[in-house]
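We append the chain.
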Amino acid sequence: MAVPPNDVADLGLAQAGVRRVDWAERAMPALRRIRERFVAEQPLTGVRVAACMHVTAETANAMRTLRAGGAEIALAASNPLSTQDDTAAALAAEYGVAVYARAGMDQASYDRNLAAVLEGSPHILLDDGCDLVNIVHRERPELLSGLTGGCEQTTTGVIRLRQMEREGALKLPMVAVNDTATKRMFDNRYGTGQSTIDGIMRATNAMLAGRTVVVAGFGYCGRGLAERARGMGARVIVTEVDPVKALDAVMQGYTVLPMEQAAAEGDVLVTVTGNRDVIRAEHIAQLKDGAVLANSGHFDVEIDLPALESLAVEVREVRPQSDEYVLADGRRIVLLAEGRLLNLGAAEGHPAAVMDMSFSVQALTVAWLVGQHSSLAPGVLDVPEEIDNEVARLELEALGVGIDHLTPEQEEYLHSWRE
Protein backbone atom coordinates (compact mmCIF):
# COMPACT_ATOMS: atom_id res chain seq x y z
CA MET A 1 0.00 0.00 0.00
CA ALA A 2 1.37 3.40 -1.00
CA VAL A 3 1.87 5.82 1.88
CA PRO A 4 -0.49 8.80 1.44
CA PRO A 5 0.66 12.42 1.82
CA ASN A 6 1.44 13.16 5.45
CA ASP A 7 3.24 15.32 7.96
CA VAL A 8 4.25 13.02 10.81
CA ALA A 9 7.28 12.99 13.08
CA ASP A 10 8.72 9.61 12.05
CA LEU A 11 7.20 6.91 9.84
CA GLY A 12 9.60 4.50 11.50
CA LEU A 13 7.36 4.54 14.56
CA ALA A 14 4.54 2.86 12.64
CA GLN A 15 4.88 -0.62 14.12
CA ALA A 16 4.86 0.75 17.66
CA GLY A 17 1.73 2.64 16.67
CA VAL A 18 0.09 -0.50 15.32
CA ARG A 19 0.64 -2.21 18.68
CA ARG A 20 -0.91 0.74 20.47
CA VAL A 21 -3.91 0.80 18.09
CA ASP A 22 -4.44 -2.95 18.40
CA TRP A 23 -4.41 -2.70 22.20
CA ALA A 24 -7.09 0.01 22.10
CA GLU A 25 -9.18 -2.04 19.68
CA ARG A 26 -9.57 -4.80 22.27
CA ALA A 27 -11.76 -2.44 24.30
CA MET A 28 -13.79 -1.23 21.30
CA PRO A 29 -16.13 -4.11 20.43
CA ALA A 30 -18.98 -2.00 19.04
CA LEU A 31 -16.67 -0.27 16.58
CA ARG A 32 -15.31 -3.66 15.49
CA ARG A 33 -18.81 -4.85 14.68
CA ILE A 34 -19.54 -1.68 12.73
CA ARG A 35 -16.27 -2.10 10.81
CA GLU A 36 -17.31 -5.63 9.82
CA ARG A 37 -20.63 -4.24 8.61
CA PHE A 38 -18.90 -1.48 6.65
CA VAL A 39 -16.56 -3.96 4.95
CA ALA A 40 -19.59 -5.84 3.63
CA GLU A 41 -21.79 -2.85 2.77
CA GLN A 42 -19.22 -0.23 1.63
CA PRO A 43 -21.50 2.73 2.50
CA LEU A 44 -18.72 5.33 2.11
CA THR A 45 -17.25 4.38 -1.25
CA GLY A 46 -15.81 7.49 -2.91
CA VAL A 47 -16.56 9.73 0.07
CA ARG A 48 -13.76 12.12 1.04
CA VAL A 49 -13.56 12.91 4.75
CA ALA A 50 -11.62 15.80 6.33
CA ALA A 51 -11.14 15.35 10.06
CA CYS A 52 -9.76 17.50 12.87
CA MET A 53 -9.44 15.21 15.89
CA HIS A 54 -7.09 14.10 18.64
CA VAL A 55 -4.61 11.74 16.98
CA THR A 56 -4.76 8.86 19.44
CA ALA A 57 -5.10 5.10 19.18
CA GLU A 58 -8.86 5.36 19.72
CA THR A 59 -9.19 7.86 16.88
CA ALA A 60 -7.09 5.56 14.70
CA ASN A 61 -9.66 2.81 15.16
CA ALA A 62 -12.41 5.22 14.15
CA MET A 63 -10.46 6.13 11.00
CA ARG A 64 -9.91 2.44 10.23
CA THR A 65 -13.66 1.90 10.42
CA LEU A 66 -14.40 4.71 7.98
CA ARG A 67 -11.66 3.43 5.66
CA ALA A 68 -13.20 -0.03 5.82
CA GLY A 69 -16.43 1.53 4.53
CA GLY A 70 -14.63 2.97 1.51
CA ALA A 71 -13.82 6.52 2.67
CA GLU A 72 -10.72 8.51 1.78
CA ILE A 73 -9.52 10.37 4.88
CA ALA A 74 -7.30 13.36 5.63
CA LEU A 75 -6.76 13.87 9.37
CA ALA A 76 -5.28 16.84 11.23
CA ALA A 77 -4.64 17.05 14.96
CA SER A 78 -7.05 19.08 17.08
CA ASN A 79 -4.54 19.62 19.89
CA PRO A 80 -0.73 19.89 19.68
CA LEU A 81 -0.23 18.08 22.98
CA SER A 82 -2.51 15.09 22.39
CA THR A 83 -0.88 13.64 19.26
CA GLN A 84 0.71 10.21 19.66
CA ASP A 85 3.53 10.24 17.10
CA ASP A 86 3.57 6.46 16.78
CA THR A 87 -0.18 6.39 16.15
CA ALA A 88 0.17 9.12 13.52
CA ALA A 89 2.88 7.08 11.79
CA ALA A 90 0.72 3.95 11.83
CA LEU A 91 -2.24 5.82 10.37
CA ALA A 92 -0.14 6.96 7.43
CA ALA A 93 2.05 3.90 6.82
CA GLU A 94 -0.32 1.06 7.74
CA TYR A 95 -3.90 2.33 7.51
CA GLY A 96 -3.86 4.59 4.44
CA VAL A 97 -4.84 7.84 6.14
CA ALA A 98 -3.33 11.16 5.05
CA VAL A 99 -2.43 12.40 8.52
CA TYR A 100 -0.98 15.78 9.44
CA ALA A 101 -0.01 15.72 13.10
CA ARG A 102 3.12 15.99 15.21
CA ALA A 103 3.30 16.10 18.99
CA GLY A 104 4.10 19.58 20.27
CA MET A 105 3.68 21.38 16.94
CA ASP A 106 3.46 25.18 17.00
CA GLN A 107 0.46 27.30 16.03
CA ALA A 108 1.71 27.89 12.48
CA SER A 109 2.04 24.14 11.88
CA TYR A 110 -1.39 23.56 13.40
CA ASP A 111 -2.97 26.07 11.04
CA ARG A 112 -1.07 24.71 8.04
CA ASN A 113 -2.26 21.18 8.78
CA LEU A 114 -5.89 22.26 9.05
CA ALA A 115 -5.56 23.86 5.63
CA ALA A 116 -3.95 20.69 4.24
CA VAL A 117 -6.86 18.38 5.08
CA LEU A 118 -9.23 20.66 3.18
CA GLU A 119 -7.16 20.59 -0.01
CA GLY A 120 -8.83 17.39 -1.18
CA SER A 121 -12.28 19.04 -1.48
CA PRO A 122 -13.96 16.87 1.18
CA HIS A 123 -17.57 15.73 1.26
CA ILE A 124 -17.74 15.23 5.06
CA LEU A 125 -16.20 17.21 7.93
CA LEU A 126 -15.44 15.54 11.26
CA ASP A 127 -14.74 18.36 13.67
CA ASP A 128 -13.49 18.60 17.22
CA GLY A 129 -14.03 22.20 18.30
CA CYS A 130 -15.56 23.58 15.07
CA ASP A 131 -12.21 24.62 13.56
CA LEU A 132 -12.77 23.06 10.14
CA VAL A 133 -16.32 24.41 9.90
CA ASN A 134 -15.03 27.85 10.85
CA ILE A 135 -12.28 27.79 8.21
CA VAL A 136 -14.63 26.60 5.47
CA HIS A 137 -17.19 29.31 6.18
CA ARG A 138 -14.73 32.16 6.68
CA GLU A 139 -11.81 31.32 4.42
CA ARG A 140 -12.81 28.55 1.98
CA PRO A 141 -16.49 29.13 1.10
CA GLU A 142 -15.91 27.64 -2.35
CA LEU A 143 -15.81 24.22 -0.64
CA LEU A 144 -19.36 24.50 0.68
CA SER A 145 -21.03 23.38 -2.53
CA GLY A 146 -19.21 20.05 -2.43
CA LEU A 147 -19.81 19.33 1.23
CA THR A 148 -22.52 16.91 2.33
CA GLY A 149 -22.32 17.86 6.00
CA GLY A 150 -20.42 16.82 9.07
CA CYS A 151 -20.23 15.87 12.73
CA GLU A 152 -19.12 17.82 15.81
CA GLN A 153 -18.13 15.86 18.89
CA THR A 154 -17.36 18.52 21.52
CA THR A 155 -19.51 20.72 23.73
CA THR A 156 -17.45 23.75 22.71
CA GLY A 157 -17.93 23.00 19.03
CA VAL A 158 -21.69 22.49 19.35
CA ILE A 159 -21.98 25.84 21.16
CA ARG A 160 -20.26 27.49 18.21
CA LEU A 161 -22.43 25.69 15.67
CA ARG A 162 -25.64 26.71 17.41
CA GLN A 163 -24.50 30.32 17.46
CA MET A 164 -23.75 30.13 13.73
CA GLU A 165 -27.21 28.65 13.18
CA ARG A 166 -28.88 31.44 15.18
CA GLU A 167 -27.09 34.04 13.08
CA GLY A 168 -27.97 32.30 9.80
CA ALA A 169 -24.29 31.70 9.09
CA LEU A 170 -24.25 27.89 9.08
CA LYS A 171 -24.49 26.61 5.50
CA LEU A 172 -24.13 22.88 6.20
CA PRO A 173 -26.10 20.18 7.99
CA MET A 174 -23.92 19.45 11.05
CA VAL A 175 -24.81 16.65 13.44
CA ALA A 176 -24.22 17.35 17.14
CA VAL A 177 -22.68 13.98 18.03
CA ASN A 178 -21.75 15.48 21.40
CA ASP A 179 -25.41 15.77 22.38
CA THR A 180 -26.37 12.10 22.15
CA ALA A 181 -27.28 10.26 25.35
CA THR A 182 -24.41 7.77 25.01
CA LYS A 183 -21.86 10.52 24.31
CA ARG A 184 -22.92 12.69 27.24
CA MET A 185 -23.18 9.82 29.67
CA PHE A 186 -20.03 7.88 28.82
CA ASP A 187 -17.66 10.22 27.01
CA ASN A 188 -18.38 13.47 28.81
CA ARG A 189 -19.26 12.16 32.26
CA TYR A 190 -17.33 8.95 32.81
CA GLY A 191 -14.56 9.58 30.30
CA THR A 192 -13.73 13.16 31.23
CA GLY A 193 -14.03 12.40 34.93
CA GLN A 194 -11.55 9.53 34.87
CA SER A 195 -9.10 10.95 32.33
CA THR A 196 -8.92 14.36 34.04
CA ILE A 197 -8.04 12.74 37.35
CA ASP A 198 -5.50 10.65 35.43
CA GLY A 199 -3.96 13.83 33.99
CA ILE A 200 -3.71 15.47 37.42
CA MET A 201 -2.06 12.40 38.91
CA ARG A 202 0.45 11.98 36.08
CA ALA A 203 1.42 15.65 36.03
CA THR A 204 1.67 16.17 39.81
CA ASN A 205 1.76 12.79 41.59
CA ALA A 206 -0.33 14.62 44.20
CA MET A 207 -2.63 12.96 46.69
CA LEU A 208 -6.22 14.14 46.34
CA ALA A 209 -7.60 12.60 49.51
CA GLY A 210 -8.19 15.31 52.09
CA ARG A 211 -7.54 18.13 49.64
CA THR A 212 -10.00 20.61 48.15
CA VAL A 213 -10.75 20.31 44.45
CA VAL A 214 -12.65 23.13 42.74
CA VAL A 215 -14.62 22.09 39.65
CA ALA A 216 -15.65 25.04 37.51
CA GLY A 217 -18.75 23.99 35.57
CA PHE A 218 -21.31 21.32 36.43
CA GLY A 219 -22.33 20.07 33.01
CA TYR A 220 -21.85 16.41 32.17
CA CYS A 221 -18.05 16.75 32.17
CA GLY A 222 -18.03 18.65 35.45
CA ARG A 223 -20.34 16.12 37.10
CA GLY A 224 -18.09 13.27 36.11
CA LEU A 225 -15.01 15.05 37.40
CA ALA A 226 -16.69 16.02 40.69
CA GLU A 227 -17.86 12.43 41.25
CA ARG A 228 -14.41 10.98 40.70
CA ALA A 229 -12.61 13.62 42.76
CA ARG A 230 -15.00 12.91 45.64
CA GLY A 231 -14.37 9.20 45.13
CA MET A 232 -10.65 9.87 45.60
CA GLY A 233 -11.41 11.39 49.00
CA ALA A 234 -11.29 15.04 48.00
CA ARG A 235 -13.58 17.76 49.29
CA VAL A 236 -15.24 19.14 46.15
CA ILE A 237 -16.40 22.70 45.55
CA VAL A 238 -18.43 23.47 42.43
CA THR A 239 -18.71 26.86 40.73
CA GLU A 240 -21.52 27.55 38.25
CA VAL A 241 -23.37 30.32 36.41
CA ASP A 242 -26.47 28.20 35.70
CA PRO A 243 -28.86 28.20 38.69
CA VAL A 244 -30.38 24.81 37.78
CA LYS A 245 -26.97 23.12 37.52
CA ALA A 246 -25.85 24.81 40.72
CA LEU A 247 -28.96 23.53 42.51
CA ASP A 248 -28.26 20.05 41.15
CA ALA A 249 -24.75 20.22 42.61
CA VAL A 250 -26.11 21.29 45.98
CA MET A 251 -28.61 18.42 46.00
CA GLN A 252 -25.79 16.00 45.25
CA GLY A 253 -23.97 17.18 48.35
CA TYR A 254 -21.33 19.46 46.86
CA THR A 255 -20.40 22.87 48.22
CA VAL A 256 -21.30 25.55 45.66
CA LEU A 257 -19.50 28.90 45.78
CA PRO A 258 -18.69 31.79 43.47
CA MET A 259 -15.17 31.49 42.06
CA GLU A 260 -14.13 34.56 44.11
CA GLN A 261 -14.61 32.47 47.27
CA ALA A 262 -13.73 29.04 45.89
CA ALA A 263 -10.33 30.20 44.60
CA ALA A 264 -9.12 30.91 48.13
CA GLU A 265 -10.04 27.40 49.31
CA GLY A 266 -8.93 25.26 46.39
CA ASP A 267 -5.82 23.09 46.31
CA VAL A 268 -6.58 21.95 42.76
CA LEU A 269 -8.81 24.02 40.47
CA VAL A 270 -10.08 22.56 37.18
CA THR A 271 -12.11 24.44 34.57
CA VAL A 272 -14.52 22.47 32.41
CA THR A 273 -17.03 25.01 31.12
CA GLY A 274 -16.46 25.61 27.40
CA ASN A 275 -16.17 29.35 28.09
CA ARG A 276 -13.27 31.76 28.47
CA ASP A 277 -11.68 33.56 31.42
CA VAL A 278 -13.26 31.36 34.07
CA ILE A 279 -10.20 31.83 36.30
CA ARG A 280 -9.05 35.45 36.01
CA ALA A 281 -6.53 37.78 37.64
CA GLU A 282 -8.79 38.52 40.60
CA HIS A 283 -9.11 34.79 41.28
CA ILE A 284 -5.38 34.16 40.90
CA ALA A 285 -4.85 36.84 43.57
CA GLN A 286 -6.82 34.63 46.00
CA LEU A 287 -4.98 31.35 45.36
CA LYS A 288 -3.02 29.48 47.98
CA ASP A 289 0.70 28.95 47.68
CA GLY A 290 1.11 25.73 45.69
CA ALA A 291 -2.36 25.78 44.16
CA VAL A 292 -2.70 23.74 40.96
CA LEU A 293 -4.58 25.09 37.93
CA ALA A 294 -5.83 22.85 35.13
CA ASN A 295 -8.30 22.97 32.26
CA SER A 296 -10.37 20.14 30.80
CA GLY A 297 -12.34 22.34 28.44
CA HIS A 298 -11.51 22.05 24.74
CA PHE A 299 -9.61 25.32 24.20
CA ASP A 300 -6.87 26.93 26.29
CA VAL A 301 -8.94 30.03 27.10
CA GLU A 302 -10.69 28.99 30.31
CA ILE A 303 -7.75 30.09 32.47
CA ASP A 304 -6.63 33.66 31.76
CA LEU A 305 -3.06 32.73 30.81
CA PRO A 306 -1.94 36.28 29.90
CA ALA A 307 -3.03 37.43 33.37
CA LEU A 308 -1.13 34.56 35.03
CA GLU A 309 1.98 35.34 33.00
CA SER A 310 1.80 39.06 33.80
CA LEU A 311 1.60 38.33 37.54
CA ALA A 312 4.59 35.98 37.52
CA VAL A 313 8.18 37.03 38.13
CA GLU A 314 9.51 33.59 37.21
CA VAL A 315 8.24 30.55 35.31
CA ARG A 316 9.91 27.16 35.49
CA GLU A 317 9.07 23.58 34.61
CA VAL A 318 8.92 21.50 37.78
CA ARG A 319 7.64 18.26 36.21
CA PRO A 320 6.61 17.21 32.71
CA GLN A 321 3.41 19.15 31.89
CA SER A 322 3.72 21.10 35.15
CA ASP A 323 4.92 24.71 35.01
CA GLU A 324 5.36 26.71 38.21
CA TYR A 325 4.58 30.42 38.15
CA VAL A 326 6.26 32.30 40.98
CA LEU A 327 4.35 35.47 41.87
CA ALA A 328 5.82 38.68 43.26
CA ASP A 329 4.69 37.84 46.79
CA GLY A 330 6.41 34.46 46.66
CA ARG A 331 3.34 32.31 46.06
CA ARG A 332 3.84 29.44 43.62
CA ILE A 333 1.04 28.52 41.22
CA VAL A 334 1.34 25.34 39.19
CA LEU A 335 -0.24 25.25 35.70
CA LEU A 336 -0.79 21.83 34.11
CA ALA A 337 -0.47 21.07 30.39
CA GLU A 338 -0.02 24.74 29.46
CA GLY A 339 -3.68 25.33 30.30
CA ARG A 340 -4.65 23.12 27.36
CA LEU A 341 -6.94 20.11 27.50
CA LEU A 342 -5.49 18.34 30.53
CA ASN A 343 -6.73 14.82 30.01
CA LEU A 344 -5.03 14.62 26.62
CA GLY A 345 -2.09 16.92 27.31
CA ALA A 346 -0.91 15.18 30.48
CA ALA A 347 -2.61 11.79 30.06
CA GLU A 348 -3.95 9.65 27.19
CA GLY A 349 -7.51 10.91 27.05
CA HIS A 350 -10.57 8.78 27.61
CA PRO A 351 -10.26 5.01 27.98
CA ALA A 352 -10.80 3.11 24.74
CA ALA A 353 -14.00 1.56 26.11
CA VAL A 354 -15.50 5.04 26.42
CA MET A 355 -14.42 6.17 22.96
CA ASP A 356 -15.86 2.97 21.51
CA MET A 357 -19.33 4.41 21.98
CA SER A 358 -18.54 7.93 20.80
CA PHE A 359 -16.78 6.77 17.65
CA SER A 360 -19.41 4.13 16.94
CA VAL A 361 -22.07 6.84 16.99
CA GLN A 362 -19.91 8.99 14.74
CA ALA A 363 -19.24 6.20 12.22
CA LEU A 364 -22.92 5.32 11.87
CA THR A 365 -23.82 9.00 11.66
CA VAL A 366 -21.37 9.56 8.79
CA ALA A 367 -23.00 6.70 6.88
CA TRP A 368 -26.43 8.18 7.65
CA LEU A 369 -25.34 11.61 6.41
CA VAL A 370 -24.08 10.14 3.15
CA GLY A 371 -27.33 8.27 2.62
CA GLN A 372 -29.68 11.10 3.62
CA HIS A 373 -27.82 14.25 2.53
CA SER A 374 -30.21 15.13 -0.29
CA SER A 375 -33.04 15.58 2.24
CA LEU A 376 -31.07 17.48 4.89
CA ALA A 377 -31.16 21.25 5.29
CA PRO A 378 -28.32 23.35 6.76
CA GLY A 379 -28.44 23.57 10.53
CA VAL A 380 -27.53 21.70 13.71
CA LEU A 381 -29.07 18.22 13.65
CA ASP A 382 -29.51 15.59 16.34
CA VAL A 383 -28.14 12.09 15.90
CA PRO A 384 -31.09 9.88 14.93
CA GLU A 385 -32.36 8.07 18.03
CA GLU A 386 -32.07 4.70 16.35
CA ILE A 387 -28.30 5.19 15.95
CA ASP A 388 -27.83 5.98 19.63
CA ASN A 389 -29.94 2.97 20.59
CA GLU A 390 -28.06 0.74 18.17
CA VAL A 391 -24.71 1.67 19.70
CA ALA A 392 -26.03 1.04 23.21
CA ARG A 393 -27.37 -2.33 22.05
CA LEU A 394 -23.99 -3.27 20.55
CA GLU A 395 -22.22 -2.34 23.77
CA LEU A 396 -24.62 -4.40 25.91
CA GLU A 397 -24.21 -7.31 23.54
CA ALA A 398 -20.42 -7.08 23.83
CA LEU A 399 -20.72 -7.01 27.62
CA GLY A 400 -23.01 -10.03 27.62
CA VAL A 401 -25.85 -8.04 29.17
CA GLY A 402 -29.46 -8.81 28.33
CA ILE A 403 -32.42 -6.47 28.81
CA ASP A 404 -36.18 -6.79 28.74
CA HIS A 405 -38.40 -6.06 25.73
CA LEU A 406 -41.87 -4.57 25.74
CA THR A 407 -44.77 -6.95 25.17
CA PRO A 408 -47.34 -5.97 22.51
CA GLU A 409 -49.74 -5.08 25.31
CA GLN A 410 -47.15 -2.80 26.92
CA GLU A 411 -46.46 -1.10 23.59
CA GLU A 412 -50.18 -0.48 23.11
CA TYR A 413 -50.53 0.87 26.65
CA LEU A 414 -47.69 3.36 26.14
CA HIS A 415 -49.08 4.62 22.85
CA SER A 416 -52.75 4.83 23.61
CA TRP A 417 -54.35 7.68 25.53
CA ARG A 418 -57.52 5.62 25.89
CA GLU A 419 -55.92 3.00 28.16
